[in-house]
Specification:
By secondary structure, the protein is an alpha+beta fold. The chain is about 30% helix and about 20% strand. The chain contains ten helices and 22 strands. The protein has a five-stranded mixed β-sheet with strand order 12-16-13-20-17, with no helix packed on it. It has a four-stranded antiparallel β-sheet with strand order 2-8-5-6, covered by helices on one side. It has a four-stranded antiparallel β-sheet with strand order 11-21-18-19.
Length: about 400
């Protein structure tokens, strides 16, 4: 990668910085690389413990943060001392996964001590060349990732060695203050993303808990939690009795188009995101249809996934359209969560739900008033989840744009 005249500046940068960026060998910015690949507790004559120092591996170093719950292993003081051998990780140092997956980056969050484990290395920067925060985001920029990919080896599981990294070139600002500002900007973005992700996860867990208590458990006819003044038992009914079902029928493939003026085609889970139909493929041929606010149920792998449509759509054979109220929609969400459809698909070569099984599926329903109360209550939670998801998506889009435009 050579630095052309046109590539001396990023597309956007902070005010007050006008110096050209320079191309360097990656290791010109690195004081030390800490690499214990291949080291295991067994090779040290020890074993993992139930608690102690968290081991950082390629599975829990995520894109910008450490997930302590993913593939969590711990070492006691003896293992920590023998493993790290005086090369302890310090707060702010940049962690980089070398394979499976290659290219995930995070920073050591504190000085409480960690074991540097499988497929993960740590960089200590030269303080007069680069800041930790800048290195952390530089390695996550698309330009850097693309070059790392070109230097990697292996088939499906790409990997990069220290030898490969010696051929890795980066283009960076020479002014450490500019590096610091860029690093701080992305750190704030990452913190905002983490905050919204945390709120979103809590809301989803809250929704999951309500789905468990607002509907009867298996072989029961009343839920654990009810709204005031409702005490009658729920009735068991077939889905086909209480909702209008339409099994999809795929149009001829020659009629598929990319023309957004044609009819939106929904074929399966790929056409839904966050519980909503997202137009992806269009068709000139109308077979079976669903109207705005109808429920869309995936009848092929993954069978039982549920969404709604805001559009008039053509239904492919991978889905069914259901005209039902909000309670029916929430019931179908719960059925998917508890594995209800597994009994219809187990043993079949291709996971699918047929028309008869869908119509005959037994569900419990309360009075219309209670259905309304439950449906509206859960819908409000869904709307709040959608709002947080939208904010999170916008932050990811903003970060992606900055990563593209603020690096060379």
């Amino acid at each position: 990668m050579s630095l052309s005249k046109e590539n001396k500046y990023p597309e956007i940068r902070f005010k007050g910085f006008t110096e050209t960026w320079e191309q360097r060998k990656f290791f010109d910015n690195i004081e030390t690389t800490i690499d214990f690949r291949g080291r295991t507790p067994k090779k040290l004559g020890l074993d993992w413990s139930e608690k102690g120092y968290l081991a950082l591996s390629a599975l829990n170093v995520k894109n910008g943060f450490i997930d302590p719950k993913a593939d969590a292993h711990y070492g006691n003081q003896t293992l920590y001392n023998k493993w790290m051998g005086g090369r302890e990780l310090r707060k702010g140092q940049v962690l980089f996964t070398t394979e499976a997956p290659m290219g995930n980056v995070a920073q050591v969050p504190d000085d409480q001590g960690y074991i540097l484990s499988q497929r993960t290395i740590a960089f200590e920067v030269k303080c007069d060349k680069m800041t930790n925060n800048f290195l952390s985001i530089l390695l996550r920029s698309p330009k850097a990732f693309n070059e790392l990919t070109s230097l990697s080896s292996g088939g499906t599981a790409k990997g990069v060695s220290q030898k490969s990294l010696s051929h890795f070139n980066v283009i960076v600002p020479t002014d450490l203050e500019e590096q610091q500002k860029i690093g701080l900007l992305f750190k704030k973005l990452d913190n905002a993303i983490a905050l919204h992700q945390g709120k979103l996860d809590k809301l989803k867990n809250l929704k999951k808990a309500y789905l468990q208590v607002l509907f009867p458990s298996k072989e029961e006819d009343t839920p654990k939690m009810r709204f005031t003044n409702f005490n009658e038992s729920w009735e068991q009914r077939e889905l086909g009795e209480i909702a209008q079902l339409t099994m999809g029928q795929s149009p001829n493939g020659k009629n598929y188009t990319n023309n957004q003026n044609d009819y939106i085609l929904v074929q399966g889970n790929a056409d839904m995101k966050n519980g909503k139909v997202v137009p992806r493929v269009w068709t000139t041929q109308v077979t079976k249809t669903a109207m705005p606010n109808d429920i869309i149920l995936s009848v092929r792998a993954p069978a039982g996934d549920v969404g709604k449509t805001d559009y008039s759509v053509v239904l492919g054979r991978g889905v069914a359209g259901i005209k039902g109220n909000e309670f029916i929609y929430q019931t179908l969400l719960r059925l998917k969560r508890v594995g209800f459809w597994a009994k219809y698909t187990t043993g079949s070569t291709f996971e699918s739900i047929n028309s008869k099984d869908l119509k005959k599926a037994l569900i419990y329903i309360p009075s219309e008033n209670e259905q309304f109360q439950i449906g509206e209550f859960l819908k409000k939670i869904d709307n709040t989840i959608a709002l947080h998801q939208e904010k999170l998506d916008k932050l990811f889009i903003l970060k992606k744009a900055y990563l593209k435009m603020m690096f060379i």
